Fold:
Amino acid sequence: MTTMLDIPELLAGLRATPGILREFVNTIPENKLDLRRGDGFWTISEHVTHLAQVQHMLLDRFNRFMNEERPEFTPFIPCKGEDQPAIPARADIDSALRQFEQYRNKQLALLEKADIGIWQRTASHPEYEQYSLYILTRHVLMHDHWHMYRIEELWLTKDAYLTRLA
Structure:
């Protein structure tokens, strides 16, 4: 079992991410935000939209950990339904950044109330061998930063070096 000694660092990372994302996105030229670099590639604005749109689902999961002894989750796979587009609908960038920050603040308010018993609380999730509030929190931070890395790659990387995702 993990010691979870890094919970303060995880929370600090989650707290810092909205500001990092906003400052980062504000440095990207407007004409690059909707540039599609190839088939199957999201645009920068679609990555920002996705980050904003998943925060409601994540807040719900945090709430369930706070209020249920052993929550059972189903996989969240965005844009996979028959009637859903293959990419997230583009939102206004400023609105998406505000939404991201507002939900993150709500998430942090919940997480800061969690005692060690809640941090250790486990859940059932078919995608993962282990799932807990601690793992979810770390996963959220990694997810944020993966999308931010992808945004930077889509903005700055030359075509020959761009990571092609399956």
